[in-house]
Structure formats: C-alpha cells, structure tokens
Structure prediction request, 286 residues.
Amino acid sequence: MRETGWMMRLLGPAEIRILANKLDLRPTKKLGQNFVIDAGTVRRIVRVADLSADDVVIEVGPGLGSLTLALLPEAAHVVAVEIDPVLATQLPVTVAERGPSDKLTVINADAMKIGLDDLAGHTPTALVANLPYNVAVPVVLHLLETLPSLRKGLIMVQLEVADRLAAGPGSKVYGVPSVKAAWYADVRRAGPVGRTVFWPVPNVDSGLVSLTRREPPTTTATREEVFAVVDAAFAQRRKTLRAALASWAGSPSQAETALRAADVDPSARGEQLPIEAFARIAEQKP
Prediction:
C-alpha cells in the first residue's frame, strides 16, 4: 500500500449495522449481498491489489462502502458500480462524512450491462471488488471483454469460484471459467478469506483472486469462435473431445479431423487443454 498522507475512516461492525438500520436494509441473496465488516480485511485487499497513484479503479458492488473507503486514498479515482439504488445514493454521503469525496464516481447500474461509455468519462485500469457470489464469473468476464483498459484486478469471490478461476489444465476444478479467464489474463489465487468478516455471515468461505492482463493467444479465430469450442468441450465433460465436439463440427469424424489438424489427441478431454489448444481447434472448424 502506498503512503498517501491521508486516510479514510473505515467502517466497523457497529457502523455497518447503524447504516443498515438507517436504510432499512435487509441483505438479499438475489443480489448476493454480504457486506465486509472487518477493516483489516479491506486493508489487506487494497494492499494485495498493489495500486499505483495513477490507477483508476472500478469497484463492482460497493454496498455500504467498506472497501470503497480503503480504495480512495490509494487510487487516482474510484468508479463504484452499484445495482441497488438505495446503496448507490447512500455511498457518496458515507464517503463525504469520512473524507474527501471528489475522487469517487457512483454509477447506479447492473455491472453486466455497462461499457466504457457508461463510466462518466473514466477509463478503469484496475478491478478491485468484493463481487456478489451469484454473478462473479460472468461479471469478471464481461468487464475484461468490454474494458480493455483493465490491466489488473483483485477480486474476492466464493472460495469454490476462486479455485475454478485460477485452476490450470488437469485440475479437477478446471472448466469453462478457468479457460475463458485465461483468454484475458494470468489468474492466480491470492489467499483465503474467512466467513466471519462478513455480515450476514455466508455459509461458504471466500478467496482472493489476482488477475494480470495479457494478450490473448495468437489465432485467426475470433474470441466467440474459441469460446464456442470451450463451451462444447465442457458441456459433456466426461466425453472425449471427439464425442463432445461432434455437434460443433458436424459429426464425430469431422471433429476428429479438426482435432488432429490442431495437433490435439481426439481421445483427450477438455479439462486437459490450455486456452491455446482451444484456439487451434477453433481455427479448424469445418
């Protein structure tokens, strides 16, 4: 964490509950609302995110502002995207009560539907967020695709999702999220997070995931074409690629021809292949 010369007063458990009562807030599973109540955890997230003075952070699901308050002293600007209109209205008030609020922009919107044109002229370079569990993977993939300016990220997600995002070929949990995330970034686990730092306390553990943008594999296939192969390969996880890609290719024999042309064993399974192999297969679609 950089030395900035000023700090925000962070929220603690008592202040979180006072705010929740003021707003008559009842956290909902539908919106994946679990609010961080531990100041040490948000400081840790910001420290591991390794922000620089010129970073513009996009935070999805800021909720009551626990993480937002820790991010503001460390970044050039924070764009907080909040789907709940009550929380989106309260966040600037909470920030202004605790320190300068000129570096905060709040967007009341669904993160799955936003693009660069929706961010009030700001160009995010880092994603740092406690992501709602129910939409974590699609939100990450959407933002990596629609915001090419994102260079890095640190997200807190359900532990099972963290494992899947960071998994490599051959892992039991390697699947569609792992492969698609690898198209955009190097992904790694960045530590566990216990349940008791949240309110309400979730019935699962959480984990931090670090993302570092990299160029996609060199290929003549489009991202959509590559992802279509990934989806087909994992739709029938237990089947060999020859069988799993039969519909995609037109028949099992055509799938085998495409696989051999891509230098992939037709008897292999999707969980054994890196993103580069899926790109080679996509180039061979009949």
